């Protein structure tokens, strides 16, 4: 970072990519700042600037840099790789900690707290933000979520057999030389001997037992006001493919 850019950052003060701290900083606070940048869009944590924007500098540079490295390594999960830069300004030393946008998001502190950056600081991530972070890093998809009360005994093996014959060139389970449970694992529909959401919806014996709202509700209203009672209503349950077939059925 150039000296002019640092001065400009101090004038603009904190934003999505910039945070200032006066040293010393508690390791928990330091970890929270690093995690927030890594979970959002990366940025710089600048040490040696007071809250009143005065440049106070940092004493004992080597010890401070070691402390920051240790926090990034030991107090952030997963470990975050940072780059530190020392800048001389007004006769004082300032440390700029460059934190990249993480490839293994979401990150958390060793106390188990997830943080994100905002335009004016940082805060704990909401549940929805965490889900988006997991999905963005391809760490979690809703259809791969395990349905804890299920077991491999809930697989409708006869239906799975018919599905394979219709969509895999007439091949049966015997042609794969593995049991139904392994086929489901290979398709990422079973994890740790439990069906995933997709596994329940596609090949579960009774999907609505475990996912009662996973159905299609169809209704016919006599006019244009949905406040009126429907003339006809059908709740389409069963496996996902069956539901889709029932929706386009002329008998609906």
Question: What's the arrangement of secondary structure elements?
Answer:
Elements: H1 3-12, E1 18-21, H2 27-39, E2 43-47, H3 61-74, E3 76-77, E4 83-89, E5 92-99, E6 108-109, E7 115-118, E8 121-124, H4 127-136, H5 157-167, H6 173-176, H7 180-186, E9 190-191, E10 194-195, H8 197-203, H9 207-210, E11 216-220, E12 232-236, H10 240-247
Parallel strand pairs: 1-2
Antiparallel strand pairs: 2-5, 3-6, 4-5, 7-8, 9-10, 11-12
Helix pairs in contact: 2-3
Main traits of this protein?
12 strands; Methyltransferase, Cobalt-precorrin-4 Transmethylase, Domain 2; 20% strand; 252 residues
Describe this structure in words.
With about 250 residues, the protein is an alpha+beta fold. The protein folds into two domains: about 120 residues, Schlafen, AAA domain (Methyltransferase, Cobalt-precorrin-4 Transmethylase, Domain 2, 2-Layer Sandwich); about 100 residues, no CATH class. Helices cover about 35% and strands about 20% of the residues. It has ten helices and twelve strands. The strands form five sheets. Strands 1-2-5-4 form a four-stranded mixed beta sheet, with helices on both faces. A two-stranded antiparallel sheet has the order 3-6. Strands 7-8 form a two-stranded antiparallel ribbon. α2 crosses α3. The model has no long low-confidence stretch (mean pLDDT about 90).
């Amino acid at each position: 970072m150039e000296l002019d850019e640092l001065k400009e950052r101090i004038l603009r003060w904190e934003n999505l990519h910039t945070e200032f701290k006066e040293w010393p900083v508690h390791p928990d606070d330091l970890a929270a700042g690093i995690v927030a940048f890594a979970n959002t869009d990366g940025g710089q944590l600048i040490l040696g600037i007071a809250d009143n924007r005065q440049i106070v500098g940092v004493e004992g540079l080597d010890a401070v840099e070691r402390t920051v490295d240790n926090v990034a390594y030991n107090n952030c999960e997963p470990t975050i790789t940072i780059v530190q830069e020392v800048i001389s300004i007004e006769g004082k030393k300032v440390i700029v900690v460059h934190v990249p946008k993480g490839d293994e998001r979401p990150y958390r502190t060793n106390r188990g707290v997830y943080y994100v950056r905002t335009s004016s600081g940082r805060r704990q991530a909401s549940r929805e933000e965490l889900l988006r972070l997991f999905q963005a890093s391809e760490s979690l998809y809703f259809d791969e979520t395990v349905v804890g009360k299920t077991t491999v005994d809930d697989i409708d093996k006869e239906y799975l057999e018919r599905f394979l014959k219709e969509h895999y060139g007439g091949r049966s389970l015997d042609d794969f030389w593995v049991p139904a449970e392994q086929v489901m694992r290979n398709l990422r529909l079973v994890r740790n001997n439990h069906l995933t959401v997709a596994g329940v919806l596609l090949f579960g014996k009774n999907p609505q037992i475990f996912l009662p709202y996973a159905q299609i509700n169809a209704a016919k209203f006599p006019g244009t006001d949905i406040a009126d009672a429907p003339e006809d209503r059908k709740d389409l349950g069963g496996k996902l493919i069956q539901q889709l077939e029932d929706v386009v059925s002329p008998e609906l």
